[in-house]
């Protein structure tokens, strides 16, 4: 079998062969097929222009009795580059499609937005009034009422301080509900999925998944404390809750358990998940409303050493609420977390 080796080079410049794989072209009318046995020759890197030389062979008159092939070298730089470009584009499309599928899955998980009949002015009004009422009642109204009655919180026993905290928390919560009712009264009747409480629905599994996030919240608490430690000059004091736990007063501990595991979850979920999160969906996607409401939830606790865990916890409760459109699951999850922290203090 006669084999030949022919070279084509621009400007008649010499080329050097490399050991890269070569391309095989089958001798079909008008078409060529690439196989793994192809060999690519590239030009001398010292030349001013890069040229690739491809060694290929044709199967003219190929038969079992005549297995040898004829080789032809051709320059095909554009085809090779185009092939690599198409592969790169395909990989990019795969990544884009994967990210799009992940985004679609998140959107399906959290659901669509709410029908919000009020504007941003009402949202801002409710939140500012709630913060002002929270501060005024806890810092001025209840202490002033106790002073008028002839006693102060510091002079009370552990049980008296626990009762004082319960009265303060209940008053703050009722004030928050009154503010919501007053500001939203002009929009009544509200859509059916607003401030919904129901035992129906498949939300128990979401609550269980939320509980599995508690170790992550705990790790974030430690990370936040390492990131923003207490100043050395800051005095370390025990709260009235911790003092009651150390004293092992069962009545005081029971009253504090009601405050942290019942009252606080109810009031906070009504404001942040029941009102703020759905209201924000008028101006942003649901996932963004979950994040913003979680940041507001963390800021309302006025503790920079707990910002990161509270933001993450707010996001978990926000996802649970958005999926169920029901305040009961997020309240239950909030109560379980507070109860977990309270039991941890009792150890």
From TrEMBL:
Q: Where is the CAAX prenyl protease 2/Lysostaphin resistance protein A-like domain?
A: 253-339
Q: What's any GO biological process attached to this entry?
A: proteolysis
Keywords, ordered alphabetically: Hydrolase, Membrane, Protease, Transmembrane, Transmembrane helix
Gene Ontology CC: chloroplast
Q: Which GO terms describe its molecular function?
A: endopeptidase activity
List membrane-spanning regions.
122-142, 253-272, 284-302, 308-324
Q: Which domain of life is it from?
A: Eukaryota
Checking InterPro entries in the record gives:
Rce1/LyrA-like_dom
- Per its UniProt record, what PANTHER family does this chain match? CAAX AMINO TERMINAL PROTEASE, CAAX AMINO TERMINAL PROTEASE FAMILY PROTEIN
**What's this protein's name?**
CAAX amino terminal protease family protein isoform 1
């Amino acid at each position: 079998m006669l084999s030949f080796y022919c070279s084509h080079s621009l400007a008649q410049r010499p080329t050097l062969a490399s050991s890269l794989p070569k391309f095989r072209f089958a001798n079909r009318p008008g078409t060529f097929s690439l196989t793994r046995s192809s060999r690519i020759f590239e030009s001398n890197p010292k030349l001013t222009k890069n040229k690739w030389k491809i060694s290929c062979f044709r199967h003219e008159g190929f038969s079992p009795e005549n297995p040898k092939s004829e080789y032809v070298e051709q320059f095909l730089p554009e085809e090779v580059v185009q092939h690599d470009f198409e592969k790169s584009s395909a990989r990019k499309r795969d990544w884009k499609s994967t990210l799009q599928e992940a985004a679609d899955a998140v959107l399906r998980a959290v659901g669509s937005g709410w029908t919000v009949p009020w504007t941003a002015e009402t949202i801002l009004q409710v939140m500012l009034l709630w913060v002002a009422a929270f501060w005024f009642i806890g810092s001025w109204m209840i202490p002033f009422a106790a002073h008028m009655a002839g006693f102060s919180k510091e002079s009370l026993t552990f049980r008296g301080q626990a009762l004082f905290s319960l009265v303060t928390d209940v008053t703050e919560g009722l004030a928050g509900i009154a503010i919501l009712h007053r500001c939203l009264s002009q929009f009544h009747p509200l859509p059916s999925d607003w401030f919904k409480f129901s035992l129906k629905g498949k939300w128990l599994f979401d609550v269980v998944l939320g509980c599995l996030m508690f170790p992550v919240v705990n790790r974030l608490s430690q990370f936040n404390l390492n990131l923003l430690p207490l100043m050395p000059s800051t005095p370390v004091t025990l709260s009235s809750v911790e003092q009651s736990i150390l004293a092992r007063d069962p009545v005081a501990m029971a009253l504090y358990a009601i405050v942290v595991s019942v009252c606080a979850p109810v009031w906070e979920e009504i404001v942040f998940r029941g009102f703020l999160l759905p209201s924000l969906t008028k101006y942003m996607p649901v996932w963004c409303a979950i994040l913003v409401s979680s940041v507001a939830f963390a800021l309302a606790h006025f503790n920079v050493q707990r910002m990161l865990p509270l933001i993450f916890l707010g996001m978990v409760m926000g996802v649970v609420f958005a999926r169920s459109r029901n305040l009961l699951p997020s309240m239950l999850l909030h109560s379980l977390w507070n109860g977990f922290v309270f039991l941890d203090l009792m150890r």
